[in-house]
Amino acid sequence: MSAPVTISIDAMGGDNAPDIVVEGVRLAHVRLPHVRYLLFGDAARVEPLLDRYPEIRGVCTLRHTDEAVSGDAKPSQVLRTGRRSSMWLAADAVAKGEAAGVVSAGNTGALMAVSKFVLRMLPGIDRPAIAGMFPTERGETVMLDLGANVDCDANNLVQFAVMGEVFARAVLGLEQPSIGLLNVGSEELKGNDAVRSAANTLRESHLPIRFHGFVEGNDICAGTVDVVVTDGFTGNIALKTAEGTVRLYSTFLKESFRASLLAKFGFLFARHALHKVKVRTDPRRYNGAMFLGLNGIAVKSHGGTDAFGFANAIGVAVDLVAHGYNDRIRREFERFKAAEPAPAQRAAGTG
Amino acid sequence: MSAPVTISIDAMGGDNAPDIVVEGVRLAHVRLPHVRYLLFGDAARVEPLLDRYPEIRGVCTLRHTDEAVSGDAKPSQVLRTGRRSSMWLAADAVAKGEAAGVVSAGNTGALMAVSKFVLRMLPGIDRPAIAGMFPTERGETVMLDLGANVDCDANNLVQFAVMGEVFARAVLGLEQPSIGLLNVGSEELKGNDAVRSAANTLRESHLPIRFHGFVEGNDICAGTVDVVVTDGFTGNIALKTAEGTVRLYSTFLKESFRASLLAKFGFLFARHALHKVKVRTDPRRYNGAMFLGLNGIAVKSHGGTDAFGFANAIGVAVDLVAHGYNDRIRREFERFKAAEPAPAQRAAGTG
Hints:
Two copies of one chain form a homodimer. Chain A is 47% helix and 17% strand. In chain A, a hairpin with a 2-residue loop joins strand 5 and strand 6 (139-144). Chain A is built from twelve helices and eleven strands. By secondary structure, chain A is α/β, with parallel strands linked by helices. In chain A, strands 3-2-1-4-11-10-5-6-9-7-8 form an eleven-stranded mixed beta sheet, sandwiched between helices. Chain A is globular. Chain A folds into two domains: 1-123 and 293-323, Isopropylmalate Dehydrogenase (3-Layer(aba) Sandwich), CATH 3.40.718; 126-286, Isopropylmalate Dehydrogenase (3-Layer(aba) Sandwich), CATH 3.40.718.10. Chain A starts with a strand and ends in a 12-residue tail after the last helix. At the A-B interface, helix 8, helix 9 and helix 10 of A face helix 8, helix 9 and helix 10 of B.
């Protein structure tokens, strides 16, 4: 953990960039003193922030660019015209080997398109996926895809299962993580063609994977499995529905504790316990969605997060680097190909 | 509200049938004394329960059948062999005009198949949808489809929007309910073909509908719109993810209040406030999913609910009857056809 690691940062990405980005670097620096940062952004705006936090001067290198990807830019447009943007340059630093991973709070679609173009895919993977962590009753669960691919076929889902499995072993340290496919019912006959066909492949294949079978929406937070696999449309909606539900619950709590004098009094005694729950469900703690399947580490921070959340996203990237996720997944795909050529590959099994 | 209404009941459907079903009828009777019940089920098991609650003897008629649909029966198998089952007979009572609506806590897929077969579709509707209510920060939101159709095209989604709109006006009493299409982003370019094409139709059509545009998962609980429209795969997963998140949050609360003596003391004062939140998020209060688009009222209770939940499902059916939902939607579809023939119909606009 103490070898120097360089992370490249899109200093201009996100709703409150570059302020919360640089402040996030400062927070991350406290926890991860061995990490160096390559910041890409507008020097006129970033320099004053670095002046404000002299303690990170020594670990930060700023590369100026006056271009940035806007929040509503179309990915295709960014691919055509965004080569001098802070996002592109930050991803390119990973491709060039100057940094071990990139973190951006910018436009998700653009970051995915740029990362795919600049970093390229790992061999054997057709599409990258966005993975994130969820708090559950049993600990934490990783879910993918959270929005990279709105339409997925069975082959994509099988590949996501493999990527999630390796992640759970390499980064979470689980020995035999269990994998569940998100569906509308646990009976074999339910669901659409893609999930049923993916389940058949995972069940019948000789992949060294512990396939649990189908899981439902309530299983995500229950922690029924270690890895929940789904398409990007459903995964994104499940993630945001869960976030919205947490917000609703805490609003109800607040209203309830404001409703009477007794309740206000109760709040004084309950405050500590309530605060602990708030911390456990704080979305900033789970900030940092991982782009898996690329030939390099890329992490997307929530665009509206604060410095605390951005620092967590940096932590996620450093974790992936420290555990050598990409080398592991490259080796695992070799192993899977040896076990059974078909499922992880689109072409005939010549692997 | 006081004209007599008859509801037919599948007394053998659900995990704890017929016990919680008959007890649910008893609870519903307290709130809705004008409602009569036609119960279908095994007399040897239901009669003793009616003996236990003499106050509902006068409003209940029991029709014996010794067949019941099992929880794991395939819908196609029930359609072939289930004509004497309590579920089928209860739905058939609506088709025959003996009851104004049917309530069952049995197998969802079977109830949908039987209801479609026995009650038939309303004219102009290709597929029925399952609709349910969600608590939100602004009140309540109706969402559909919650699982009747795992694959939906744009035309289905447009029809769901119309059915949800009429429901919000007829049953919830909203004057101009707003409609949102669930998607992975609010930008027009995101999402799959079906939602994008449905959005274009809703936006450009002359349907007298207040179309808000796309909404995301977090908008469900935020109450951004009155009606959330989605396919049955996504809707079912969003519903169950929200339920699982509420369960997780309350588990975290319980753990937190047990963690120390001060927290336990705090709980004593906070108990009332916490109980209010529990009531507001209690899934039993939202029990009773409505099958919309059929030529008759059918309501599905959660299979694992208790008597309180089942009584709520009866209340939902009585509400739909009292507000004449099916007549309203039949008239509205006429009106929509007059406004613009294309979107709500599959064939060329000859309506």
